[in-house]
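ESCALATION

Customer reports they have been waiting on this structure for their group meeting. Please prioritize. Original submission:
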Amino acid sequence: MRVPVGMVGAAMALSLVSVGAQVRAPYSEGAAGLIQKLERLTTTASAMHTGAHPDDEDSALIARLARGDHARVAYLSLNRGEGGQNVLGPEFYEALGVIRTEELLQARALDGGEQFFTRVVDFGYTVNMPETERKWGGREVPLADMVRVIRLYRPLVVASRFSGTDADGHGNHQLAGALTPLAVRAAADPSQFPDQLKEGLRPWQVKKLYVGMRFGPNQPQPPTLTLQTGILAPALGRTYAQIAAEGRSQHKTQEMGGAQLHGPQSTGLRLVESVVPRVAQEQSVFDGIDTSIPALATLAGLPAGSLQAHLATMAEAARESLDEVDVRRPSAILPVLARGLTVAREAHAAVAGLTAPDAAKAEARFLLDHEIRQYEDAIVHASGIHVEALVTSETIVPGGTVSGSTRVFVPEGLEASATLAPPALPANWTSTPLPEAPPFSGRGFMARFLREQPTQQISYTLTAAPDAALTQPYWLETSPKGDVFTWAQDGPRHTPFGPPVATSAVDLTMAGTSVRVTVPLQFRFIDPVRGELRRPLAVVPALAVQVSPGLDVVALSKAAVPQQVTVRVESQAPTAVSGDLLLDVPAGWTTTPARAPFSIAQAGQSASATFAVTPPAGIGAGRYVFTARADAGGRTYQQRLRTIAYPHIQTHRLYETARVDLRLVDVTVAPVTVGYIMGTGDEVPDGLKRLGVPVTLLTPNEVASGDLSRYDTIMVGVRASEVRPDFVANHERLLDYVRNGGTMIVQEQHEVYTQKKLTPFPAEIGSRVTDEAAPVTILAPTHPVFTTPNRITLDDFTDWRQERNAYGFATFDARYTPLLESHDPWDTEQKGGLVYAKLGKGHYVYSAYSWFRELPDGVPGAYRIVANLISLGAK
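Update from on-call: job pushed to the front of the queue and completed.
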């Protein structure tokens, strides 16, 4: 039976051909890494931790289980965190999900765990589990995916981060906690999700289920197990809690950096279900389960005495390797490891001849597959042999070429041989041998002094298929259905990213045994500041089309004025390319010119053309979409390339149709000038500019000593009180600006804003309206915010995205005037989302309404309300 990619064996494949996290994990390298691998040879322990989002996980638990108990450990996150905030930059939604997926990989590289996901989308904050179920189409999709991952990974123990109660807070948390025990039970039941069994998966009975105790008093009972995570691991030089804190600090978009505490630390768990006898005063999650190598056959369900001699020899080899390893000469234990590997392979082959149920045989093979892989990893690590496959470019276009070499470096004095073969390539790709290796030392003055001499290597030129698929996050290849991603049935599922474009395998022979090492093809380059960096080979389009503006909001009164749209085409083609740029518009619209010829001489260059777009007479308010394209060489290119790159993650590329989303809106704005104090990074200034408003981004010097009276209105960006010390230090100066007749609009801030008493009058932050469709009541309909220059009605609150507001005033002084009331269906009334105060001659507004989400989405009502807010400053 054919098993789709991402099913059986995918858990092992993650470690076999991973392109690697950007952060390097010292705990997996050198002597420390070898000791870890040898310890893992002694156990069949495995565990899975479940949660809702990236950064929900109990990182100390993962580190303790993976690096202390030497178990296989995975974290299953229901979603990728698309609905979170981003302190690093402007990426939200799908792009943020890519970054946060990478951040989880960085954390797992440190704490030693693996990573899985379900298909559901993080739609934003909610305290309501029913809303979560409604957004995700019920429980079926996340539950099915959780069951699939459990059946795939087959953990002995599952530990839920959440309890499934209101105490979990976030509605996603509640549902993750509620689904985990259901998934554990369903995974063992062959009548549940039978299609998974047709895919090649088998039912799996988890032995023990725990619930975490770390998110406040989420259970009335005390923990039944307290795991010590502050224990120093001598081989690692760190405690598990410190490793966890280092890993958790990789969640940089969410500001999760934390202290790496010394001394006693712990994490609590409560045992809620067990199919093995319970142990009083547990010391480990594996108490009551024999995870020793000799017990592997019993664990798999084989008859007593099965594989007894094989397993005893494997256990002896594991103990001997640990006892005899000399980290100054680790290759000395290769004969011992080779003996263990040989016997593990013999045990695997012997399973077929056993008189035992097929399910038990399959389980034994599954466990032995992992033991074999672990022995192979330990052998390669102890040998010091390094295998890599480098290519001369980070990218390749369909039909294009790239040169590369597979290289083996064998330490001096080690008796070993290697058999190299051309890379494994996608369908219709070809490989041609090269007589000499291309240079890989990088560019610049020092490159001439960098020389490497592999022990063995083969070189080749790769030619991509003319229809080679572009490299992109697999879950974004097709549009989601509501808040659920759609995955190809024959493609990757549940894993952080898809497999590498191409891999290279090398068969190593040493100490009388052979091991195959598979590595991804990578591009190595030298950053003058950061040093050596590596990127996986990626397929990109020969031409990428960019269009500006991607979103435009135009006042209906100016609709007849031709709109200027610039289309730029960027080439990665290896040869010169020429063609035409076009802008496809709705019926009745016209473009001048109708088409624009372009010619690009080489890769890395671009060409552009500007089109004047004129609507038909009498055009009304609404949404109008223009699609840009480049016609060249008999092909049409319409994809916009968006690169996601930060120093702490691998680079990724997202693709979408190159288009202009034009919104004609019945909006007017007063002639005002705006100064903007940027916070964590948002696109609100761009939204103001779309309204034709002059916007100046205020520097710290301008905030501290500039002439603020030049601005009719000053707008403060999201979370500026946390990332702009100049805003905090000069808040009294800014309030004086208001007292002297200015207008200041402060957008969403966290609790620190009121805790530092930066408001003109007392207030406390703490309200939130998570339902973007929550009814709104205009409390002061005659206030200028709702009358001038635009008459605001309830229609202006339709088609919002993700949420109404966040971090509004929960309590506030009577000198504030609440302007709007809105609350979630399950909550009490909230009037602190938009408040106004007259301060001296000027106007102060605190707005928790999510303009930073609504303006980039082109929500017409948001533009009309913001236009009124900034117009308060009109003289």
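Sent to customer with the following note: The first strand starts at residue 46 and ends at 51.
Escalation resolved.
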